[in-house]
Design brief:
three-stranded mixed β-sheet, globular, single chain, 11 helices, mainly alpha, 3% strand
Amino acid sequence: MEVKHRSKMSFMENSTEVNEFRLLGLTDAPELQVPLFITFTLVYLITPTGNLGMITLILLDSRPHTPMNFLLSNLSLVGCVCSSAVTPKVMAGLLTGAKVISYGGRVAQMFFFVAFASVDCLLLAAMACDRHAAVRKPLHYASTVTPSVCAQMVVACYVWGFAESAIHTGLTFCLSFCHSNVVHHFFCDIPPILALSCSDIYVNEMVLFILAAFNVFFALMVIVSSYLFIFFAILRMHSVEGRKKAFSTCSSHLTAVTIFYGTVIFMYLQPSSSHSMDTDQMASVFYTVIIPMLNPLVYSLRNKEVSNAFRRAIEKMKLLFST
């Protein structure tokens, strides 16, 4: 009994729990810290300005709100939260060199990022369904995609995203971290955190793979099937102008889908042994920083209804300042 007690005490002494992590960031090169800080600052200023501006524009527009605009406003909100969960900490690390994140900070960052990234994934599928209804049966669009149906789709996206994030966050921080506290990443994403654990991470890896695969393949199945129906509907169109309009809407959405799902598949649907942290960081920059900034441009400014709402808002401002 005494021998067992001593060995247990020795194990506990040699496996001190890590209470904080140090993020390595994008690079340790001193000459790159200031340029990267300026770049991330400009991007982060553009991201909430564009996304919150788009939400405000849609809410204040006097015309009836369409399902697509409702989905766009939620996508803009998701982009703001995803970016805000990661970018400010990156900026602080580049400016001050303080790249340490507390236990509470890492839990909050992982939870909110995973939750809203999952919501983003499913919102893209919901938007594909909306475009399918609008292009394939435009005369029945108002009766098919009603406000209640649209709200139910959005609520389902949020419920699933937060439930999935709670599972991942709970499983990840039930592990023991008793070796290194250096995270080879610029934020607390799941794969680099799992790499630091001294516990058995088989269950975590399987849950991560299964849930990520479900998200990606379910959403891609909805998107691909929707666009197949859209493609056949476009082929049956006799109007050249109608075809151009439909292709324009589809091309912008498909571009964003390709970038988003390409990076997600690259990050989460590969074995942990094949992960390269440097390559993963570059891929992560796209869906944590670049995509939220591009969402207002890719979706909203190429949307005719939002463009018209923007012009009406400008005209109202001109009248207000002229009186």
